Amino acid sequence: MSSLSKQPPQGMGNCFHTVHVFDSPALLARAAARRIALLAKRAARTQPFLRIALAGGTTPQACYRALREETLDWSRIHIYFGDERCLPASDPQRNDQMAAQSLLDHVPIPAHQIHRIQAHWGAVPAALDYAACLRHSGPLDLILLGMGEDGHTASLFPGLSEPGEQRLVIPVLHAPKPPPERVSLGPAALLAARQLFFLVAGPAKHAALQHLQQGASLPPQQFKLAHWYVDRAAWHGL
Question: 128-133: long-range contacts at Cβ-Cβ below 8 A with a sequence spacing of 24 or more?
Answer without folding.
Answer: 128/169, 130/168, 130/169, 130/183, 131/167, 131/168, 131/169, 133/80
